[in-house]
Amino acid sequence: MPAREVALPGGEGRLELPPGAPAASAVLVSCFACLGHSPGPERLARALVSRGFAVLRLDFTEVPESARARGHPDTTPSVDTVVAACAWLGAHAPAPRLLVGHSLGGTAVAAALPRLPDVAAVALVNAPAGAKDVLALLSPRERAAGEGSLRLEPGRLRLQRGFVAAIDGAAVAKALGAFPGALLVMHAPEDRYVGLDNARRLVTCARRPASLVMLDGADHFLARKEDAAFAADVLGPWAARHVARVREREEPLPEGQVEVREASEGGLAQDIRVGPHWLRADEPLALGGQDSGPTPYGLLEAALGACTSMTVRMYADRQGWPLTRVRVRLSHDQVHAKDGAECESRVGRVERLERLVRLEGPLTEEQRARLLHIAELCPVHRTLESKVDVRTRRDDSSTE
Length: 400
Known about the structure:
The chain is of the alpha/beta class. The protein has helices at residues 39-49, 65-69, 79-92, 104-112, 132-135, 140-145, 161-166, 169-178, 196-205, 225-242, 296-319, 340-343, 365-375, 379-385, and strands at 3-8, 11-16, 24-30, 53-59, 98-102, 121-125, 148-152, 155-159, 182-187, 211-214, 258-262, 270-274, 277-281, 325-336, 349-360.
């Protein structure tokens, strides 16, 4: 996804665009950056970009270069910054119809709603329901003053009285109570900064029935990839369902065609279009990627595994056999060739895909043996074992 850094009033942001014209826009306000590299913002943004959203990311804990140069170790969140980010995005893309807020970014998003009439849906992740729980994290002296410095892991936020007043619990409840759009609240029950009761209060404030999703096992920052991926898997379909302007960005490719394009400038991530579907490929952090999708070899193994399972399932159903579930686990390696048969077309080393097939259900040994043989006949397996003729031609068509 094409991305670029943008200067915003009160901070810096990152604009991420889908291929082609955006179908809708979203602003994602978070407190992820103080943790260093977190998969949270990338996964949440990707879930939206893949569905045609232009996404402007703003992080309250990311210290701007200008502030860093002046020696300021923390940042100052503001509801005005959220409003300004929405105005900026509206001037460069469709007016934002979706707001996503993490932590205090979520509280600020909720407080900003009365000033953002075009917003149709709001998603809040581990967000306080007001200033009360936030103030409890400050020292007694700071609580008495109504402002102070809030530490989130290694990052800090300077909470000023104006911001604390703007996110007062009563103000947030009033804003959500008047908001006519859809509300999604995702919360980690084990969040050590924001208690679960905050999620309940946010849902109760909603004018219409809201969606509440528990992020079991996650922390405040969604630091684990699997937790960030789960939150993204919930957010993407929910946003597409509730933001009426979202539409298909491009016509599906003809059957049998796949298109791959670089997802961003200077990165390894790739956007993959297969018919009406969009996928992502990337490399691990250790190899220079962002780990935002499976590797090309991971996709190859997935194709073989999916085809194996489908082939076995179709055969068992035709035979009327009691196969309840198929599981296929694969791994890829290069091994030294051991005999002339393996070395016939390769010298020294050969590619090897190990495939472990689990057949569940009250099958006989004869049925299991037959299904394992059928697995060897799946179309992708046969393609991989054949001599594939790959031809490369230059595409000189216009990119406009």
